[in-house]
Amino acid sequence: MSIELSRVSYTYSPGTVFETVALQEINLTIEDGEYLGLMGKTGCGKSTLLQLMVGLMQPSRGQIFVDGKDINGRDYVRAELRRKIGMVFQYPEIQLFETSVEKDVAFGLKHSGLSKAEAADNVRWAIEIVGLDYDKIRSVSPFSLSGGEKRRVAIAGILAAKPKILILDEPIAGLDPKGRDAFLDLTQKLNADGVTIIMVSHNADALSKYASRIIILDSGRLALDSPSKDAFKDLARLETLGVGVSQAREVAHLLSQCGFQTPADIIRYEELQPLLLSIARGGHL
Amino acid sequence: MPIIQAKNLSHSYGFEGKHNRSIEDITLGVKKGEWIAILGQNGSGKTTFVKHINALLPVQQGELTVAGYDATNPANIWAIRQKCGMVFQDPNNQFVSSVIEEDLSFGLENYGVPQSEIPGHVKRALEIVGMPGFEMKSTHMLSGGQKQRIAIAGVLAINPDIIVFDEATAMLDPEGRQEVIGTIQRLHAEEGKTIIMISHLVEEAVYADRVVIFQQGRLVAEGTPEVVLSDVALLSCAGLKPPMAVRAYHDLQSAGVHLPTIPLTNKALVEAICQLN
Ligand SMILES: Nc1ncnc2c1ncn2[C@@H]1O[C@H](COP(=O)(O)OP(=O)(O)OP(=O)(O)O)[C@@H](O)[C@H]1O
Ligand SMILES: Nc1ncnc2c1ncn2[C@@H]1O[C@H](COP(=O)(O)OP(=O)(O)O)[C@@H](O)[C@H]1O
Ligand SMILES: [Mg+2]
Ligand SMILES: [Mg+2]
């Protein structure tokens, strides 16, 4: 399930006073089974890039191939894309509209070809896997939920279709700490089962822990593309790109400013902890 | 006298299939100029509680006064809303106009600010949130983080005594978040505003004078960040996690290394470790 972008550019409202160049000359290949983290400051083009990948908008220039097929080509079957790719939007809760949580989660399965029983199974699985109590919440109106609960329902609606590529735009904002961990663990499990994960987040801790590759956009251009353990080394550059680093990376950096030698590829707490210990015990240079 | 005083406040939305109260028996006093952080799991009643402070929800049971006004008296609703501005977690629902200047002016007009003074207020509010010169831009053109900063400008423009931030930083990039936190710090320190801040980021609660924890509609703990955020058992019981520095402190402790105090921030952690050597 590869996604390939070839010289993709996008301009909003071209030829008007509102003309905004959102993406310029993006070349990018995402292979089957990757866990990709997409970062960059507000307005750098992340959401635009995702919307192009799922075919919601067409590039102004360039082409996008999914499994080798041009998704904007004349004879491309759109239904194929919808079956393969699931996208959780940046504000998923605003898309909730059904009268019950269960109906809302089931909505995306209407044209999936699943039998009633299969669909019902998927819906129950999805509601439970996002940490909600199926029996308690199934008939509740989505509008009577808290912010975080709505987000969980919206995510469940996408997961229910069991997509092969899961595209997530800031999915963990608004989730409580346990919900955040549980959701990230779930994406990891899905990824281990072969699902490609593409996740936009400002949360460097989350991406450092879960993503294997990091991409950073800067004013619509691809500014960085590297394995996550190398992506957070150059702090000065990251600062100009408006990208934060994980807490572990920050502590390692602060220690190096105190005169201790610390590797620049420490990005997770598990990697930092032994270093902290050896420094605290005075056995570290 | 506290600027906010809630006594035994309870609320139920009364929907079918939802017998539980969304908040139950909340008692909390907030001093003028205090900065309160509220933490708690999804659905624990944080938003429901703060909507009372802004008179968005009527008091069903219990007592509440805000800036000297009795919130149980419906006649006080508008006075209370003028004293207490609120920034919500969903920026898409906070705009009344698609042009930023019009949007910000609308709130000011509602509160009777003279026309001639409006552009000055708008300009200043946009500067505070780090978006000067955005007056004539369309709100549709903004990405998520930018929208949220405009929403904050809308509240700042009205200049209330109390400002409630309901996960206002949740969608922002590090720069935007820093700007907002910096703005809150300024409003708190220099202008004496009372701040109520709901967040899922425990690192943000560190800046508050007092941290309050909600669990299943109840207020289960309150205290200084030093006390509450270092209490791992309490946090875990409320479904929360301590800051990484606290985790490191305990890991060091169980390995036989004792730091003199429990650090809440990464900086404090590193300073403590450097002083050991
Ligand atoms: N409009 C509503 N109608 C009915 N029930 C509601 C409504 N809004 C919230 N609730 C319920 O009230 C409880 C508390 O919700 P509230 O929004 O106060 O939680 P919260 O602590 O702000 O959660 P989050 O962290 O997810 O924002 C939840 O069980 C929620 O489902
Ligand atoms: N619907 C839209 N109409 C016009 N301009 C837009 C629209 N959506 C986004 N933009 C602009 O395109 C650029 C990229 O935005 P976006 O992809 O939302 O960034 P990000 O998701 O990285 O914050 C920004 O300059 C933004 O203002
Ligand atoms: Mg976006
Ligand atoms: Mg809430």
Radius of gyration of chain A: 21 Å
Order the strands across the largest sheet of chain A as they lie in space. 6-7-8-3-9-10
From the spread of the alpha carbons, the general shape of chain B counts as: globular
Unreliably modeled segments of chain A: none
CATH architectural type of the largest domain in chain B:
3-Layer(aba) Sandwich
Class based on secondary structure composition and strand pairing of chain B: alpha/beta
Overall pLDDT of chain B: 91
The greatest inter-chain interface is formed by: A-B, 54 and 52 residues
Helix content of chain B: 25-40%
> Helical region count of chain B?
11
Write down the overall geometry of chain A: globular
Bound compounds: adenosine-5'-triphosphate, adenosine-5'-diphosphate, magnesium ion
Short description:
The complex is a heterodimer of chains A (285) and B (277). Chain A is α/β, with parallel strands linked by helices and 285 residues long.
Which keywords apply here?
heterodimer, A: 285 residues, alpha/beta, 6-stranded mixed sheet, 4-stranded antiparallel sheet, B: 277 residues, binds adenosine-5'-triphosphate, binds adenosine-5'-diphosphate
